[in-house]
Design a protein that fits this description.
single chain, seven-stranded mixed β-sheet, 21% strand, binds nicotinamide-adenine-dinucleotide, binds zinc ion
């Protein structure tokens, strides 16, 4: 038996003893988890915004660890017992139409419950660890051990000379921030505005700077999360306080007449809003289960983006939203780029950046807690208490 963080009901998670995972298929691996993180995406599940959880589901999709056991058909030229590996959150087959195009989060072969995605979205997405039955109902990585299907594709071998905190974010938020910026084709004179200074926003800010943006402006709530805005300034971004400043006017003042060229929503479906009638409307409608999202940041990103600019959406949305300014989107000729991150595609390049010292991803860690304290971790991460930006859980502590 092992410890794992399980979903019980909206706003209720606990650590419980559950059976150890076993090799089920011939290309599975069992990984002993050494570090595993709590993500803003987990909050959407715990807060009940994605309605496909069942009591007892193990959460977590940002793990790394040591391979303890392999099925008989794993390609051992790719991964072996004893290897140190990061496990990307989307589960890919490596061989379908989408995987061959490096669109791994769209993999067609790894979601055993595709009917849910077909019903919600028209087509199902890939399997994802610990991310509801919509993405296959796979057990997640906030546990002592994790079963990894198609291990020779989904276990990414890591070097021994970097520590867990430098590597574990290759499972999700570092590639997510990078893809959010990279897909905007940033030019040297571009101004990039980024909504949300959570962990994803932080990697987006650094990636936009790395990709040569002229100027990065980060937006969040200075009273609620001053440490996040400070971390953004430390990276070289200008900041706007969404609570006390008018974001559109301030962007205009800061950047001149026809920018920002690129607007990135790193907030997602649980955005907060102030002083807007649309946000009150969102709250009422989500409380009545008449819509699934509060898209306050996305609306602003679309409205603030310059004509013919790009709006990138790494923030997660799950269902239906209302009052999206389609007129602005269409008449300004905006390009929308979005998606669950194709993590596998980015791991080699971003690992190389860590090796070259271009970035040390451990900058974002504010807490390392024993896995047994994960429920407390969820509480402080949700409430943005105790200066919490990113929590890494330690199953062995
Ligand atoms: N696309 C992907 O593959 C992928 C991967 C990981 C995470 N995500 C998503 O990225 C989003 C951010 O994740 P995170 O871990 O950084 O979450 P987080 O909850 O820690 O951070 C969100 C931040 O947005 C701020 N915010 C709220 N409303 C705002 C608004 N109207 N304007 C500006 N800022 C606002 C909050 O104060 C907070 O600091 C989530 O939706 C998460 O699900 C997507
Ligand atoms: Zn995540
Ligand atoms: Zn595939």
């Amino acid at each position: 038996m092992m410890n794992a963080l399980i979903w019980c009901a909206p706003y209720k998670v606990k650590v419980e003893r559950v059976p150890d995972p076993k090799i089920i298929n011939r290309r599975d691996a069992i990984v002993r988890v050494t570090s595993t993180c709590i993500c803003g995406s987990d909050l959407h599940l715990v807060d009940g915004f994605i309605p496909f959880m069942k009591p007892g589901d193990i959460l977590g999709h940002e793990p790394m660890g040591i391979v303890e056991e392999l099925g008989p058909d794993v390609d051992t030229s790719k991964v072996n017992v004893g290897d140190r590996v990061v496990v990307p959150f989307p589960i890919a087959c490596g061989n379908c139409f989408f995987c061959k195009r490096e669109l791994y989060s769209c993999c067609d072969n790894t979601n055993p419950k595709p009917h849910l995605g077909e019903m919600m979205f028209g087509y199902s997405m890939a399997g994802v660890f610990g991310y509801s039955h919509l993405t296959g109902g796979y057990a997640g990585g906030q546990a002592e051990y994790l079963r990894v299907p198609l291990a020779d594709v989904n276990c990414q071998k890591m070097p021994e000379d970097l520590d867990d905190h430098q590597l574990v974010f290759l499972s999700d938020i570092y590639p997510t921030g990078y893809m959010a910026a990279e897909q905007c084709n940033i030019q040297p004179d571009d101004t990039v505005a980024i909504w949300g200074c959570g962990p994803v926003g932080q990697f987006t800010i650094r990636s936009a700077i790395l990709l040569g943006a002229h100027q990065v402006v980060a937006i969040d709530d200075e009273k609620k999360v001053p440490e996040r805005l400070q971390m953004a300034r430390d990276a070289g971004a200008l900041t706007i306080d969404m609570r006390t400043e008018d974001v559109y006017d301030r962007l205009f003042d800061l950047t001149g007449v026809i920018v920002p060229d690129v607007c990135i929503d790193a907030v997602g479906m649980e955005a907060h809003g102030y002083r807007t009638i649309e946000h009150i409307y969102d709250k009422v409608k989500t409380n009545l289960l008449m819509q699934t999202e509060r898209p306050a940041a996305l609306r602003q990103a679309i409205e603030c983006c310059r004509k013919a600019g790009t709006v990138s959406i790494p923030g997660v949305y799950g269902g239906l939203a209302d009052k999206i300014p389609l007129g602005a989107l269409m008449n300004k000729g905006l390009t929308i780029k979005t998606g669950q991150t194709h993590v596998h595609k980015y791991v080699p390049k971003l690992l190389d950046y860590v090796r070259q010292g271009k970035i040390d991803p451990s900058f974002v860690v504010t807490h390392r807690l024993p896995l047994t304290e994960a429920p407390h971790g969820y509480d402080i991460f949700r409430a943005k208490q105790d200066g919490c930006i990113k929590i890494v859980l330690d199953p062995a502590a």
